[in-house]
Amino acid sequence: MGIVNVTPDSFSDGGLWLDPDKAVAHGIELTRQGADLVDVGGESTRPGAQRVTEEEELRRVIPVITGLTAAGVVVSVDTMRAAVAEASVAAGAKVINDVSGGRADADMVKVAAGTGVPFVVMHWRGQSTEMESLARYEDVVREVVAEVEAQAEAVVAAGVKPEQLIVDPGLGFAKTREDDWALLARLDAWNRLGHPLLVAASRKRFLGTLLADERTGELRPARERDAATAAVSALAAATGAWAVRVHEVGATADAVRVEAALRAAREER
Ligand code: PMM
């Protein structure tokens, strides 16, 4: 899954794809590099980010979804708003990626049920303005899986079909760096839920910290975290991820192919 953030303030590509034509061209380029799906978002969810209005979010994403769909690209929409999800599916989006898993907007689950498209339930404890204070866990893996499981059950009780659901640990959302590593170390813990697993580590802060300058302690800049992202992608694929959501697709597509070849060779023995 390649990422096109149509925002001025996303942490690693903010401002690059605000122009719809540039955003569409970038999404097409990501599929050329190997993306099967392009995730279009119009609202930054970086820690501390303020929300944009619904009108502004629609203005940003709809032309891009329309353009990518016309070019034959399979699009997912990254939104917490029911009205944006509904308009996006009408414009051609084939997946609803809601980082709140239906919790931010009470109407979202109805839209997911009504459209019938795959629906991402990510682990989420609150909006970006407050999420850093919500990173409190006794056993992060057990609690995050259990909270997503409970939300998945609530969503299904409200009419979404179980086969529509995709689950996601929500790396960096109400998580410390240690929490992110603990979750990545135990991706197998999601198997028992029986839903496809999406992992979105791309360029996130825990990688910036890992790769920090040893002398100054300065974090590795977001756009220089792609090799580490590709490594995480291959390792996530090896432990059962269905998809990885990344900004720079080329390196990750290669890394995932290496993992698939290794797995095939292992299975032949
Ligand atoms: N992370 C971001 C945005 N959307 N969607 C899903 N499903 N999972 C994530 O972890 C996730 C997401 C934040 O990253 P970005 O600002 O680089 O898009």
From TrEMBL:
Catalytic activity: (7,8-dihydropterin-6-yl)methyl diphosphate + 4-aminobenzoate = 7,8-dihydropteroate + diphosphate
Gene Ontology MF terms: dihydropteroate synthase activity; metal ion binding
Pathway recorded for this protein: Cofactor biosynthesis; tetrahydrofolate biosynthesis; 7,8-dihydrofolate from 2-amino-4-hydroxy-6-hydroxymethyl-7,8-dihydropteridine diphosphate and 4-aminobenzoate: step 1/2
Superkingdom of source: Bacteria
Occurrences of domain Pterin-binding (ranges): 1-257
EC number(s) stated in the UniProt entry for this protein: 2.5.1.15
SUPFAM superfamilies named in the record: Dihydropteroate synthetase-like (SSF51717)
Keywords: Folate biosynthesis, Magnesium, Metal-binding, Transferase
Pfam families: Pterin_bind
CC annotations in GO: cytosol
GO BP term (any one): folic acid biosynthetic process
Listed cofactors: Mg(2+)
Homology family: Belongs to the DHPS family.
The protein's name: Dihydropteroate synthase
Annotated organism of origin: Streptacidiphilus jiangxiensis
Classification lineage: Bacteria, Bacillati, Actinomycetota, Actinomycetes, Kitasatosporales
